[in-house]
Amino acid sequence: MTDLPQTPSFRLDGQRALVTGASSGIGLGAAAALAKAGASVTLVARRRAELEAVAKAIRSHDGQAEALALDITDLAATAQAVADHGPFDILVNSAGLARHAPALDTTPEDFDAVIGLNLRATHFLTREVARGLIAAGKPGSLITISSQMGHVGGPERSVYCASKHAVEGMTKAMALEWAPHGIRVNTICPTFIRTPLGEQTLNDPAKKAWILSKIKLGRVGEMADIMGPVVFLASPAAALVTGTHLIVDGGWTAE
């Protein structure tokens, strides 16, 4: 009888995951997916009440979750929190900010806020999680929720696109540096996803029509479209995947 190759596991039992932006949207979906796959999830966002509600919901479905209220733009507090609560086998950077405006109208304050969270805070949090893994001699999977806008441009999105293009380059550099330690670093690049934040754009008929004209599969993304990719990149099934991006955009960037 022919021996068949074994499919690698998508399970995350015994793994510890840190998820930012976990109180809503993609971060919440990522946390729920990781917990369902067996990981113990630490939920990070600024609002404790919302985090506690998500943690309670995950535990009600037999998952493991705890809330950690934290503003990741406070680099010193973030480094201390990772040192106190880590090491984490998995990181999902889902905290992000968009302040769309024509480039001619962009304010320095909006520029600093978007770059400060999407790039600066993401860089230093990822570094601290990697530092903990290296000190513990453990491999890991570090994932950032980037965007299709990290690969194309979009109107009124010069700063947002800049932040996401930068995240893509940062990810490649970190992957090269930490590969000898068995630490994988990747991004997920969604199109517009139906979340409370995404609905603000999708509720505009003209903007929704523009979005649907770009998405070749003819629909906007749902939370489940991101949950599978998160589990895949976090799991042994993606053991040889690092320094790259998983684009979940319905074909937007294919042309």
Descriptive report:
- This protein is of the alpha/beta class and 255 residues long.
- It has helices at residues 25-36, 48-60, 75-85, 108-136, 158-178, 196-202, 205-214, 224-234; strands at residues 16-20, 40-45, 64-69, 90-93, 140-145, 183-190, 245-248.
- A seven-stranded parallel β-sheet has the order 3-2-1-4-5-6-7, with helices on both faces.
- α5 (158-178) links the parallel β5 (140-145) and β6 (183-190).
- The relative contact order is 0.15.
Helix/strand class: alpha/beta
Element string (H = helix, E = strand) = EHEHEHEHEHEHHHE
What is the average of the pLDDT values?
Answer: 96
- Give the overall shape: globular
Number of strands: 7
Adjacency order of strands in the biggest sheet: 3-2-1-4-5-6-7
Compute the separation of the termini in Å: 45 Å
Share in helix = 40-55%
Q: What proportion strand?
A: 15-25%
The major β-sheet equals:
7 strands, parallel
- Specify the number of helices: 8
Report low-confidence residues grouped into runs of 5 or more. none
- Work out the radius of gyration: 18 Å
